[in-house]
Amino acid sequence: xxxxxxxxxxxxxxxxxxxxxxxxxxxxxxxxxxxxxxxxxxxxxxxxxxxxxxxxxxxxxxxxxxxxxxxxxxxxxxxxxxxxxxxxxxxxxxxxxxxxxxxxxxxxxxxxxxxxxxxxxxxxxxxxxxxxxxxxxxxxxxxxxxxxxxxxxxxxxxxxxxxxxxxxxxxx
Length: 172
Description:
By secondary structure, the chain is α/β, with parallel strands linked by helices. 40% of the residues lie in helices and 16% in strands. It has one domain (30-169): Glutaredoxin, CATH 3.40.30.
């Protein structure tokens, strides 16, 4: 005997499945977790000059030239860099474009004062488990990952980053 499931039950199952998918998508997918030590960046074959990071609060920003939200985030991140650089913050942008000219073109249109390196072979982005752009990781002066963000939602993200940067700079 074949059992029948009513359309209303099927609809509820579909809705619950959709909710589960949304909930799973909201979970952080980074391999790095808050409380982990940031690995030494010089072992990932990054192109460009890595700044001195020891003893600094570091905001790593993974980005790509094709990323619309990255275009909006760059000027805001540059404002954060200017506001907090004398207090010990270093923003380090990590580009994941395979072609250097794509990164260069983006930077020509969106110049910044913070250092930018390129992860052309995507070794660092793979180690971090970054799956979407932009993704940022805030690291305290001891080299411990404290906060992570996926995406850029304008003023909301800048407010969160500002609060977190101030907490970490204060040693909290």
